[in-house]
Amino acid sequence: MNFNPTELGASIIFAIAVLHTFCTGYFETLAKKSRSHSGLWHLLGEVEIVFGFWAAILIIFICFIDDLNTARIFLDQRNFTEPLFVFAIMIVAASKPILFVSTEILHLLAKILMLVLRIRSAPALYFLTLAITPLLGSLITEAAAMTLAAFLLRDLVYRHKCSMGLLFGTLGVLFVNISIGGTLTNFAAPPVLMVASTWGWTSAFMFANFGIESCIAIFINALGATLLFHKELIEPSNTAKQSKIPLAVIAMHLLFLLGVVVFAHDPIIFMWILLFFIGYTTAYPKHQNPLIVKEALLVGFFLAGLVVLGALQGWWLQPILEKMSPTEVFYGSLALTAITDNAALTYLGSLVTGTTLEFKLALVGGAVAGGGLTVIANAPNPAGIAILRQYFPNGAVSALYLLIAALPPTLVAILAYRLL
């Protein structure tokens, strides 16, 4: 492996940042115990801050190793389209009319399930949220699907008193299902998007090679979680039903959502659409809730930091991938995804020349199968954390408990991709 001092330092800083994500709960505990430095400990306990914070350390490090101009050029060469897109789609997808129409559709489907299977509404809604919403990720992108699912689960599950098993079990299944749920098309999942144009993969190709397997794994995971936790689920309150929202308002919000998705690769256009959307909600506030600008900003900051830190990890990641067989690539990319963004991993894999189709399918399959193991494994995961974090002990999601909870649904995804 050939590397320079900057790349070595960047990898050490990256390793510290990964370790930091496992310690956020500890920092939140320190924040509660400390009187004079509680603000600092609370800042370090925010998982969305981690990679942005250590990216700043990296830039300072580059300034010392080289100079300020080198650091500036390095930042100018980074592509921040994905962080900007996730920021924009989170705000639009979490708006009240979008959540209203999503909830109404799920309630309609739940009524059908209740009639056919004679089950309670809470388990039916729980199953549908974990099964149907991730599949929407192949149409409206994984980030939008994560935002919708997190808010739906917040109202259905997390607002009530939950056991640790329900808290983390639901999150683990959600993260894994979202990661594999975007593989039915070639534009919705970040790790697929990174290689689709280079390898000429169409949506038809993705559905033929990943679609059925992903659907089976998603439904098994959702069904397993429902059977495991159905007794803990509390029936939705009929008195808490939302007021009707005019069809015209819903149509406008759906158009804004569609616009952001269609122009997902053009930040100037989708950011313009976002600003127009914010103006619209301000002008017509009657059927709106406060926009989640703060949460979206934190997630964007997290992903931007990951872009900066991940850019200098190719010196050790790419040689590892080049020496692997297709089977080794599948399990290797699955393991590496836990400590680096799966989109960065597949991008580096696309740079390896002379690879077979089996190698390519194994790389992408392993990357998406492992997308739920940690908060950094898949770009939409921080969005789910930002929405649901407050309902976890000390307001922090334990990285270790998340890893444990995500292992069973990850195993189901592995079996689906390797055996079917």
Give the SSE order as H and E letters. Answer: HHHHHHHHHHHHHHHHHHHHH
What is the assembly state of the chains in this entry? single chain
In DSSP terms, counting alpha (H) and pi (I) runs of 4 or more, how many helices? Answer: 21
- Characterize the main sheet: none
Percent of residues in helices? over 70%
**Unreliable segments of 5+ consecutive residues:** none
Total count of strands: 0
Structural class: mainly alpha
Mean pLDDT: 91
Radius of gyration: 21 Å
Compute the separation of the termini in Å: 36 Å
Shape: globular
User: Into which percentage range does the β-strand content fall?
Assistant: under 5%
Detailed description of the structure:
By secondary structure, this protein is mainly alpha-helical. The protein is built from 21 helices and no strands. It has helices at residues 5-21, 24-33, 38-44, 50-65, 68-76, 81-93, 96-117, 121-140, 142-158, 164-181, 190-199, 203-229, 247-262, 267-283, 293-310, 314-322, 326-337, 342-350, 357-369, 381-388, 399-419. α4 (50-65) crosses α5 and α7 crosses α8 (121-140). The protein is globular and about 65 Å long. The mean pLDDT is 91.
What attributes characterize this protein structure?
420 residues, mainly alpha, 21 helices, 74% helix, globular
Question: Quick summary of this structure?
Answer:
By secondary structure, this protein is an all-alpha fold.
Describe the secondary-structure layout:
Layout: H1 5-21, H2 24-33, H3 38-44, H4 50-65, H5 68-76, H6 81-93, H7 96-117, H8 121-140, H9 142-158, H10 164-181, H11 190-199, H12 203-229, H13 247-262, H14 267-283, H15 293-310, H16 314-322, H17 326-337, H18 342-350, H19 357-369, H20 381-388, H21 399-419
